[in-house]
Design a protein that fits this description.
The protein is of the alpha/beta class and 370 residues long. It has helices at 19-30, 70-88, 101-109, 122-129, 131-143, 152-161, 208-215, 233-242, 257-263, 282-289, 300-306, 318-330, 332-346, 351-369, and strands spanning 4-14, 35-45, 55-58, 92-96, 115-118, 146-149, 170-172, 195-199, 223-227, 249-252, 269-272, 294-297, 311-313. 43% of the residues lie in helices and 18% in strands. Helix 3 (101-109) runs parallel beside helix 5 (131-143) and helix 10 (282-289) crosses helix 13 (332-346).
C-alpha cells in the first residue's frame, strides 16, 4: 500500500514545549510506514529535538493571537500554506487544533485536498468563551471533510459549539503514548505521607490551586511538587506562602518528557486537577503507565480516560481532594489496586493504536473526497 502524503502542523515554535507538539511527534512517528508527513511550524526550531516528522517547514508570518491582527495573520499564513501545497500536493491535510490560525489557513487554501481537522482541547475551551475563537472553530469544522476528537465528551462539546450542524463529520481517535519507551513500572510505597506530583500548564482551567489548598486540609503532612509554567504560576506560589506550605510544596519549571518520566520514580501518586473541560489527560496516562496511582477531578473527559482506574473527586473541591489524598495514604491495598488498574488502563492507549485509527480515518476522508 502506498504511503499517504500528509501536510499538517501547529503555528507554534518547533520544539517539545507543549502536549500537542509531543503528541503529534509521537503520532506521525508511529505513522511513518503509512504516511510521509510534512509539519509546518513557526520559528525558532529546536535543533536538538528528535521529533517524528519526516519533513518540517517553518512559516514566515509573525504570530498574532486572537484580536485585531488575527485575520491579517491568517492571510499571511495562507500565503505560506498555498506556496507549500502547490509544491507538495499532499493526499490529505491534517488541521491540528480547531482554533489555531494555521488550521484556518489550511482549510481556506485546501481547494480539492481533503481536510481532517483534529481537536486538542484548548481550541474548544477558547471557543466556549471567545466569540472570535468560536467563529474560527466553526469555519474549520465546516470546511473539513472529517473532524476528529479523542473522546465523546470533546466531540459533544464541539457539537454544542456548532449547533450540531456537522454531527456526520465526527470521528473518534483516542490518543496514546509511546508505551514501548516506558521503563519497568514503579511499585507502590507503604508510607502514610505521600509525595505527590502535579505536571502541566499552570492556567486557571488546570486548577492547580485545588491541590495546593487541599494540601492544607489533609490529616498528614503530604508533599507536593508542581512541574510546569503558565499564567497562574505567581498566584499559585503566593497562595502557597499564604497557607504556610512552602516547606511542603515545591515548584519546578517545565521539563522535557523523558526527564519527567525519569522523575516519576520520586513520587507516590500523581494528581490531575482540571476543573473544566479536559480533552484527554495524556500526562495522567503516562503516570499510570509508570505505575503511579492517580487522583483526578472527574470532569467528563477524564472520567472517560481514567474511569475506575483512578481515584476521583469533585472538580475544584479542595476538601474532597484532601480526603482522597488521605484515603490513598492510609489504604495500601487501594494504592496497589489503583497501580495495577492504572497499568491496565494505560495499556489501552498505545500511540500505535492512535496511528492506526487516524490512518484509517484519513484514507476514508481521501476516499470520500474522490
Amino acid at each position: 500500500m502506498t504511503r499517504m502524503r500528509i501536510t499538517t502542523g501547529i503555528d507554534l515554535p518547533l520544539e517539545p514545549s507543549c502536549g500537542s507538539m509531543l503528541f503529534c511527534s509521537d503520532l506521525y512517528g508511529a505513522m511513518a510506514d503509512r504516511a510521509r508527513t510534512t509539519f509546518l511550524a513557526l520559528p525558532p526550531a529546536n535543533p536538538g529535538w528528535q521529533h517524528g516528522f519526516e519533513e518540517t517547514v517553518l512559516a514566515t508570518t509573525a504570530k498574532a493571537p486572537y484580536g485585531p491582527g488575527f485575520h491579517a495573520y491568517v492571510d499571511g499564513l495562507a500565503i505560506d500554506v498555498h506556496r507549500h501545497l502547490d509544491k507538495a500536493r499532499p493526499d490529505a491535510i491534517h488541521a491540528q487544533h480547531l482554533g489555531f490560525g494555521l488550521s484556518l489557513a489550511l482549510v481556506r487554501t485546501a481547494q480539492d485536498i481533503p481536510v481532517v481537522a483534529i481537536a486538542h482541547g484548548t481550541d474548544v475551551i477558547a471557543a466556549a468563551t471567545n466569540p472570535l475563537a468560536r467563529d474560527v472553530l466553526t469555519e474549520i469544522v465546516a470546511g473539513a471533510t472529517t473532524v476528529v476528537a479523542p473522546n465523546t465528551a470533546l466531540a459533544d462539546r464541539i457539537g454544542e459549539l456548532t449547533d450540531h450542524h456537522y454531527r456526520d463529520k465526527m470521528a473518534l481517535v483516542p490518543w496514546g503514548i509511546p508505551l514501548a519507551r516506558v521503563a519497568r513500572p514503579l511499585r507502590p510505597t507503604h508510607t502514610h505521607t505521600l509525595r505527590l506530583l502535579h505536571a502541566g500548564r499552570l492556567d486557571a482551567n488546570k486548577s492547580t490551586s485545588t491541590a495546593i489548598e487541599g494540601l492544607a486540609l489533609t490529616d498528614h503532612r503530604h508533599e507536593l511538587t508542581v512541574i510546569g509554567s503558565g499564567p497562574e504560576q505567581d498566584a499559585l506560589q503566593h497562595r502557597t506562602r499564604e497557607l504556610g506550605l512552602s516547606d511542603r510544596i515545591r515548584f519546578a519549571p517545565f521539563q522535557p518528557r523523558h526527564t519527567l518520566w525519569e522523575r516519576f520514580a520520586d513520587f507516590d501518586a500523581f494528581v490531575f486537577t482540571t476543573s473544566g473541560l479536559e480533552a484527554f489527560g495524556l500526562v495522567a496516562v503516562e503516570a499510570q503507565a509508570h505505575g503511579l496511582p492517580v487522583i483526578y477531578s472527574d470532569v467528563a473527559g477524564m472520567t472517560q480516560t481514567l474511569g475506575a482506574a483512578g481515584l476521583p473527586y469533585s472538580p475544584g473541591d479542595a476538601a474532597q481532594f484532601a480526603q482522597a489524598v488521605d484515603k490513598l495514604a492510609s489504604d495500601h491495598a487501594l494504592r496497589t489496586d489503583l497501580s495495577i488498574a492504572g497499568l491496565a488502563n494505560a495499556s489501552c492507549y498505545d500511540i500505535a493504536h492512535s496511528a492506526h485509527r487516524l490512518t484509517n480515518v484519513t484514507r476514508d476522508a481521501i476516499g470520500a473526497a474522490t
